[in-house]
Amino acid sequence: MSIGYVTLGAADVEAALPFYDAALGALGYERGEPSGGWAFYGPKGGSPCVGICKPHDGQAARAGNGVMIAFRAASQDEVRAAHAAALAAGGSDEGAPGFRPPEGTEFYGAYFRDPVGNKFCVYTA
Fold it and tell me: Which of 36, 59, 85, 116 qualifies as a cystine partner to 26, CB 3.0-4.6 A?
């Protein structure tokens, strides 16, 4: 069994797209044509995908406490590129690219939040 998709809330889907275009684009994810108030991003020809939409319950879009989505990158360069793209597109830093733990040599990751506050990790191991 694998993850098929993840959805994230946005108060204004169109306004959220530049952030996701930059951050997920750096990982090779492509945005499909927005439809019905939704925008989906996925790796070319595959899954899992990420959907951006207004919350169905009509409440404010907000980040979940303790929730984080991690994207596996192909290289340390890709980790750095995604982190830089996310920050340049309005995201906030939650941990610069580097090894975790700092003396490690296997898990290389970076952490950031989108403008709503959703937390992401991009890593390679």
Answer: 85
